[in-house]
Each structure stands twice: as structure tokens, then as C-alpha cells.
Design brief:
globular; 3 strands; Arc Repressor Mutant, subunit A; alpha+beta
């Protein structure tokens, strides 16, 4: 997840994750609604950031677990 590396704009996340802008905006809206991200406006840009570093750690752990499960998968 792009937000595990600090504050980002929607356009930066779209580029990093290779997803559409509407999809990124939708997910960010849901993360904001769940109080998982903060939003900061600076001029024409809106920056999103995870509210708590523990969320970053959880995402990193889940990403590692998913990679491990995929690496050990014998059937598809």
C-alpha cells in the first residue's frame, strides 16, 4: 500500500499502484470515513496519511503473510 511510505497525494498513489483515479479516491474516502487516514490540504494538493504508525506495521505484516502464502501455494 502506497500510504505505508508516508504522506501521499491521490495522483502519486494512482501512479505507484497503477490504479484509476476514481478507484483510489473511493478507497481513500472509505479509509477517511473509517478514521484510518488524515487529510491535509496544501494549495491545490490534498495529502493523505495513515493516522497511526501501528496501522503501517499491520499492513506490512499482512503483506509479508500474503507473499509467504503465495510462495508456498502448490495449486491455483
Amino acid at each position: 500500500m502506497s500510504l505505508t511510505h508516508g504522506q501521499k497525494t491521490v495522483s502519486t498513489m494512482v501512479e505507484e499502484l497503477s490504479i484509476s483515479q476514481p478507484l483510489a479516491s473511493h478507497h481513500l474516502k472509505e479509509l477517511k470515513r473509517a478514521l484510518l487516514v488524515t487529510v491535509e490540504r496544501s494549495g491545490p494538493f490534498i495529502y493523505y496519511e495513515l493516522v497511526d504508525p501501528r496501522i503501517r506495521a499491520i499492513i506490512t505484516d499482512l503483506d509479508g503473510l500474503a507473499a509467504n502464502l503465495l510462495a508456498n501455494r502448490t495449486t491455483f
